[in-house]
């Protein structure tokens, strides 16, 4: 990892510490600064409220010229999060072709928060959950809350 | 299905009617898009370079999956084709090399390309590759900007540019970029300006620049910085640029400029020229090499250079669809560095080999005054003493290479063959047997007066050094007492074009540019006759 990348990650970490977005906690390992662990609370008013989700942010060596990789370590019933042991997300500014070097991790975290309030159905990684969200919102909410209880307490 | 393949007979195979639909296929397969790995093409099967008859490859894949209908197969191939990403290799920015390499690359290509690339070296003697990783256009302009400043060679100019770039932070702020983020990228650009300014004393600017641009972190930061400049420039002149855009300025900038990986397009080139290149007094010209009618690349001037004491700094880009490289005219470059003494010593040290080199000895005997060994030595020493050491530079790559070139021993040279390499050369291009008078002509590039002329054949008893590409510029520019060989003036000299070592193993390997795995892959024109007459004319250089 280049000096520029390290400098940038340190700078972003400093900002995140100075002004942590509401409902988040960031764990940072000095030894391995390319891997952040984020604890995110389910936003109030969303189906995920009351849940605590563990996320992992991995910075590629080419950061900030390539996007960070975000994954949910806590299982979540969400159209934009892959329903497997990876819990990966790939949408919007996290896509390699949409990522811009001036983007910051804070923007990524905010994006995730807003997606928990309002999933992006057009860009879903789990089409069946997206479909359920569209056609049978009740069922979706029930499942999502069920998963929160089961995995995210 | 596999039988014709195993037989290795492309001719037999080409006539199997069941496959005629490949030729009619509307899908645009091209050899570069077929991502077969070498393991899928056992070398025994793979007898020909892929260009022109790639149904050959498809057969191989069909043999693996025999139950596909043609439609499914097309779908599968199209999918493979779409997903294929050519392996991007090579330096981020390459060394400057003779542009006859481009002509060599296209020697077997489409006639339009062939004509255009052959005309290229006479006007644009050198070029430099940029890695085609999606940033090449940005990289080429950014590199050209710094290099042009180096060519201007004024320390104050670097300071002025740094101040100007810093003042452009206002523009970036106005466009909504946050300073704490872009400053990291900008700093790399300022640093490089400072380094290059400081290098003018030492004269190692060119290597510093190349080093910086081949450092992924530094070059990406600078590329990102110039992208932000272009974006901010467009956003600050939204009304003006909106006329050229289908979508609104903000989303255009976001998708086509700021995105981490996006090729530069015409509008961004224009904006970057206005923001970065033109205010520095540097000209920008793009030369389009495509299949349009004409026998030269089409030049398109984006900005005109200012005159710096007779110097017109230019960035010239060679555009081939989807890719930018950097081109140079011979006169764009600063005067060649003077290197001295080495050549005298070498010529002196070599003369004990003189008699061993029998083919050369024949040549020698043709020259008046060059007959005896003793004489040679005397002359040589006298040269060593009398020659002003700073007037010519030595290039250890000798002109004629009897060891590897299939050239006949010396024939009296034709009168001044047309030299497409560089105009400057013709100055000292004189026939071998010309009278001594001609060497004293005032047109001579190196103002040296020769009283004796025998010392002009570059003897080289050692095996010739590999013909490295980065040598070429020096070869072309050299002066000195050695008469340049006529062969040196041919396009492709020094690029290994005439390599006669063409074996089947080489030809079928990825070192051959006709091979789709080669980073400089160029489809080869398929001409059926050549297959019947063996492999004549199928040589491609591997040395790029």
UniProtKB/TrEMBL annotation, chain A:
PROSITE patterns in the cross-refs: UBC_2
Keyword annotations: ATP-binding, Nucleotide-binding, Transferase, Ubl conjugation pathway
Keyword Zinc-finger: no
Keyword ATP-binding among UniProt keywords: yes
EC number(s) recorded for this UniProt protein: 2.3.2.23
Enzyme class: transferase
InterPro entries from the UniProt entry: Ub_conjugating_enzyme (IPR050113), UBC (IPR000608), UBQ-conjugating_enzyme/RWD (IPR016135)
An example Gene Ontology molecular-function term: ubiquitin conjugating enzyme activity
Domain UBC core: 4-153
Domain of life: Eukaryota
Membrane-spanning intervals of the chain: none
A Pfam family matched in the record: UQ_con
Protein name in the entry: E2 ubiquitin-conjugating enzyme
Organism from which the protein derives: Didymosphaeria variabile
Classification of source organism: Eukaryota, Fungi, Dikarya, Ascomycota, Pezizomycotina
TrEMBL record, chain B:
Keywords: Hydrolase, Protease, Thiol protease, Ubl conjugation pathway
EC category name: hydrolase
Transmembrane region(s): none
The UniProt record lists the keyword Hydrolase: yes
Protein's UniProt name: ubiquitinyl hydrolase 1
Record Gene3D superfamilies: Peptidase C65 Otubain, subdomain 1, Peptidase C65 Otubain, subdomain 2
One annotated GO biological process: protein K48-linked deubiquitination
Biased composition (Basic residues): 535-544
Taxonomic placement: Eukaryota, Fungi, Dikarya, Ascomycota, Pezizomycotina
């Amino acid at each position: 990892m280049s000096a520029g990348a390290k400098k940038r990650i340190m700078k972003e970490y400093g900002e995140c510490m100075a002004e942590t977005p509401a409902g988040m906690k960031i764990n940072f390992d000095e030894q391995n600064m390319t891997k952040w662990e984020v604890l995110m609370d389910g936003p109030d008013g969303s189906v995920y409220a009351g849940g605590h989700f563990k996320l992992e942010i991995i910075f590629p060596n080419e950061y900030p010229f390539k996007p960070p990789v975000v994954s949910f370590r806590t299982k979540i019933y969400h159209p934009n999060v892959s329903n497997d042991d990876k819990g990966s997300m790939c949408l919007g500014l996290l896509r390699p072709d949409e990522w811009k070097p001036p983007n910051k991790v804070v923007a990524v975290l905010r994006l995730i928060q807003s997606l928990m309030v309002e999933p992006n159905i057009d860009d879903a990684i789990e089409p069946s959950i997206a479909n359920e969200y569209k056609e049978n919102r009740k069922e979706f909410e029930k499942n999502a809350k069920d998963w929160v209880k089961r995995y995210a307490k | 299905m596999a039988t014709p393949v195993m037989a290795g007979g492309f001719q037999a195979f080409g006539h199997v009617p069941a496959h005629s639909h490949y030729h009619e296929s509307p899908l645009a397969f091209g050899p570069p898009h077929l991502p077969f790995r070498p393991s899928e093409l056992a070398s025994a099967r793979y007898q020909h370079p892929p260009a022109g008859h790639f149904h050959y490859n498809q057969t191989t894949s069909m043999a693996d999956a025999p139950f596909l209908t043609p439609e499914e197969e097309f779908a599968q191939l199209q999918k493979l084709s779409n997903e294929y990403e050519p392996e991007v290799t090579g330096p981020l920015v390459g060394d400057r090399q003779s542009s006859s390499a481009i002509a060599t690359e296209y020697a077997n290509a489409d006639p339009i390309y062939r004509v255009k690339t052959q005309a290229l070296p006479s006007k644009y003697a050198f070029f430099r590759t940029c890695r085609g990783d999606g940033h090449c256009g940005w990289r080429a302009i950014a590199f050209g900007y710094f290099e042009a400043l180096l060519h201007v060679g004024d320390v104050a100019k670097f300071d002025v540019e740094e101040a100007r770039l810093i003042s452009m932070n206002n523009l970036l702020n106005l466009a909504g970029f946050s300073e704490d983020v872009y400053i990291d990228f900008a700093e790399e650009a300022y640093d490089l300006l400072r380094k290059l300014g400081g290098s003018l004393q030492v004269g190692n600017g060119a290597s510093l620049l190349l080093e910086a641009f081949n450092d992924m972190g530094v070059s990406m930061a600078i590329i990102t910085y110039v992208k932000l400049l272009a974006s901010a420039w467009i956003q600050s002149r939204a009304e003006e640029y909106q006329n050229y855009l289908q979508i609104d300025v903000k989303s255009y900038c976001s998708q086509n400029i700021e995105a981490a990986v996006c090729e530069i397009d015409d509008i961004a080139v224009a904006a970057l020229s206005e923001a970065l290149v033109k205010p520095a007094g540097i000209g920008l010209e793009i030369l389009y090499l495509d299949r349009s009618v004409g026998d030269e690349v089409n030049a398109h001037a984006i900005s005109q250079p200012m005159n710096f004491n007779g110097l017109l700094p230019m960035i010239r880009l060679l555009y081939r669809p989807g890719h930018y490289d950097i081109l140079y005219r011979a006169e764009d470059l600063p005067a060649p560095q003077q290197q001295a003494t080495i050549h005298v010593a070498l010529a002196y040290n070599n003369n004990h080999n003189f008699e061993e080199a029998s083919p050369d000895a024949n040549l020698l005997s043709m020259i008046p005054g060059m007959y005896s060994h003793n004489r040679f030595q005397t002359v040589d020493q006298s040269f060593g003493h009398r020659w002003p050491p700073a007037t010519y530079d030595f290039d250890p790559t000798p002109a004629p290479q009897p060891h590897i070139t299939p050239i006949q021993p010396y024939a009296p040279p034709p009168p001044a063959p047309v030299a497409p390499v560089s105009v400057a050369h013709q100055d000292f291009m004189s026939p071998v047997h010309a009278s001594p008078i001609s060497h004293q002509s005032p047109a001579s590039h190196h103002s040296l007066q020769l009283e004796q002329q025998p010392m002009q054949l570059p003897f080289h008893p050692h095996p010739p050094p590999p013909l490295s590409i980065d040598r070429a510029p020096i070869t072309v520019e050299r002066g000195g007492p050695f008469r340049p060989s006529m062969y040196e003036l041919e396009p492709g000299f020094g690029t290994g074009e005439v390599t006669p070592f063409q074996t089947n193993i080489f030809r079928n390997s990825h070192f051959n540019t006709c091979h789709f795995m080669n980073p400089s892959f160029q489809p080869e024109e398929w001409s059926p006759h050549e297959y019947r007459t063996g492999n004549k004319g199928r040589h491609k250089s591997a040395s790029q």
